[in-house]
Amino acid sequence: MYENNVETVEIIEKKVERIVDNIDELVAQKKFGEIKKQINDLEPFDIAEVLEELNSAELPIVFRLLSKDNAADTFVEMSSDNQETLINAFSDAELKAVFDDMFVDDTVDVIEEMPASVVKRIINQADLETRQRINEILQYPEDSAGTIMTVEYVSLKKEWTVEQCFEYIRKIAVDKETIYTSYVTDAQRRLEGVISAKELLIADPKTTVGSIMTTDFICVTTDTDKEKVATTASDYDLSSIPVVDKENRIVGIITIDDIIDVINEEATEDFAKMAAVLPTDQPYLEQSVWSIVKSRLPWLLLLMVSATFTGLIINTFEHQLSLISTVLFGCVPMLMGTGGNAGSQVCVTITRALALEEVEFGDILTIIWKELRVSILLALVLAVSCFAKLQLIDRLLFGYDGYTFAVSAIVSLALFITIILAKLVGCTLPLLAKKCRLDPAVVANPFITTVVDALSLLTYCGVAVALLG
User: Is 289-468 a domain of CATH 3.30.230.70?
Assistant: First the structure.
């Protein structure tokens, strides 16, 4: 009878949780048969999650229970620390068996995270062809398309018939990372066209590939930035992208799994920069206290020094403001906080739009005009709300007599101007950073707050002294 093995994501998550909760007990009781049955029913990603719960002594024991098909795929999904633990525990034969079943791009990813002694062992166990491919990929510039491509792709000839293509694909498919898109090349490996598995399936078996292949295709070079590769894949809905050299010879392809990894890495890096933290590849729990301190301290020192401008402005106007009204100082935190939030809103929006290539520096006037109108409407609503709050709540409800009509009007007017300035600064800073070839994410939160704080104080003190002094 047919057995339905389809499982929802929720069922899989519960199964993984149950195995994680019981794995230590099963290892202690040496129920290896049961462990083998349970973990080999999981996907490689889930198996890696289970193995993360084991200590360095238990990890090699359980890993050796994996089937040959699961071992290499699971190894790729594991953390670099656990990978190193396993490599040190492996015999040369075991090491070769695992890496022989891995694609070259995955092997390179592992090598880049390992110390020199471990790298030497991996290279020594690789065959000559694999070793040459690894060395070739490692020579490409950091963060380039060449460093994330795989060399395991399907290459066809345009004079082949569809029937010949299928015979060839059946022979080599097991060693290729993807067979959903094939690449048509000439004798010098120059890329002439691409063809999908769907196009091959619906074509007449006697038809030549050259007559049905697509010659209008998207490709990147080995030096193309990997973030640009990810953006291109997203823009054109591509599941893989061919990588060519300067002579238009195909040297590899970048598949969707690596594209997703790049998108996640870039997003994580941008979030770190916007939070004034130096980016790191390590998961939070695997970082030492000292490494976290080093990632946060430089930005905090820089922002502390830059914040001294705010203190200088307050010191300059302190005497004049205190003579006018002591309650004016009570509104400074509200004014600075609202201005900073207003600037951060538009700054993050424009930074994201730049990353997605929705806008560029040439759109600066259009963006300023749009944000000017937005800021006037927002500033008007917030200024009226601030005036009503100071008069109705602070003065009448809590009895703060210092908030006279004139003082409340000054605070509201200063808030109105501050929000407009904050929005304009917030939309131009990322664009100027991009024009200067700096990372817009760097100015998204750290610097916008400092700049807007200074502007809000200058505006507030200037308006108060001018109108009440």
Answer: no
Q: In the CATH scheme, what is the code of domain 9-139?
A: 1.25.60.10
CA-nearest of 258, 224, 228 to 103 is 258
Model-wide pTM > 0.90: no
Cβ(393)–Cβ(437) under 8 Å?
A: no
What residue segments make up the domains of the chain, in order of their start?
Answer: 9-139, 155-262, 289-468
Distance CA 422, CA 37 (A): 60
Question: Which homologous superfamily does the CATH classification assign to the domain defined by 155-262?
Answer: CBS-domain (3.10.580.10)
pLDDT tens, the chain, 469 aa long: 334 455 677 888 888 888 888 888 888 888 888 888 888 888 898 999 888 888 888 899 889 999 888 888 899 888 888 888 999 898 888 888 888 888 888 888 888 878 887 888 888 888 888 888 888 888 888 889 988 998 889 999 999 999 999 999 999 988 888 889 999 999 888 999 999 999 999 999 999 999 999 998 899 999 999 989 998 988 888 889 999 988 889 999 999 988 998 888 877 777 666 665 666 666 666 677 887 777 777 777 776 776 677 777 777 776 666 655 566 777 788 888 888 888 888 888 898 888 777 888 889 999 999 999 999 999 999 999 999 988 888 777 666 666 678 888 888 998 999 999 999 998 998 899 888 887 787 666 667 777 888 888 888 888 877 776 5
Task: Kindly list the strands in the beta sheet with 240-244, ordered across the sheet, starting from the edge strand earlier in the chain.
Answer: 220-221, 240-244, 250-255
Cβ neighbours, 10 Å, residue 38: 20
Give 247's contacts (C-beta < 8 A, 6+ positions apart).
Answer: 188, 190
For strands 191-196 and 155-156, give the pairing. unpaired
